Amino acid sequence: MTRCKVLFLAANPLDCTSLQLDEEARGIEQRILQTDHRDAIVFVPKFAVRRDDLQLHLNKEKPHVLHFSGHGSKDEIEFKGDDGNAAPVGKAGLKAMLKAVKDNIRLVVLNACYTQKAADSITDVIDCAIGMKRGIGDEAARVFAASFYLAVGFGRSVKNAFDQAIAALQVMGIPEDKTPVLSGRDGVDPDKVFLVEVAEKQSNPH
User: Fold this and answer.
1) In 16, 29, 100, 103, which residue has its Cα 20 to 30 A from 64's Cα atom?
2) Which of 109, 205, 112 is nearest to 158 (CA)?
């Protein structure tokens, strides 16, 4: 069985709307613990993340999944500055850092508003990325993330986990199921990308 490390980076600058990022992390961790392959997933949460922390955490943790939770705009995501206020990182800078320090990363999740363009750009260097085509509410972000990693923990593919997370939004009556978007690098099928691979995946009975 392969192991998967999820690096959860959260930033909630003082000059931005307050988000329940600790609840998102808690929800993800709880769902992972309920899955068949919970021992195969290492969840590493980091809060109040600053821009220069990105390089540090990527080098130190060498994650398979980079998950950013916080605020975003059409061309940037908001880290926390030394003064506590927003410190933006543009999509070009994010892509350059991931290209330089990508190591084992198979998936990037940008669980923040207006991050589809950044996610699309990232798939030039990373197999799969998830971004948001518009603003996303706090509850929707939490439900989507927890449901996605629940499916991953049961050995589902990135595409199937994404589909399950979208369905969970619909089941919960949260009208934001068209907001998350999954992108894949050219030649990569997200339905064939497994973050946790188990022996059973090798045989598909008909």
Assistant:
1) 16
2) 109
Q: From 3.30.565.10, 3.40.50.1460, 3.40.470.10, 3.40.50.2300, which CATH number describes the 4-201 domain? A: 3.40.50.1460
**Structure tokens belonging to residue 73:** 């705009």
Per-residue pLDDT tens listing for the chain (206 residues): 578 999 999 999 999 999 999 999 999 999 999 999 999 999 999 999 999 999 999 999 999 999 999 999 888 999 999 999 999 999 999 999 999 998 899 999 999 999 999 999 999 999 999 999 999 999 999 999 999 999 999 999 999 999 999 999 999 999 999 999 999 999 999 999 999 976 654 444 44
Taking the alpha carbons of 145, 148, 151, 156 in that order, is the dihedral positive or negative?
negative
DSSP 8-state symbol, 75: S
The domain locations on the chain are: 4-201
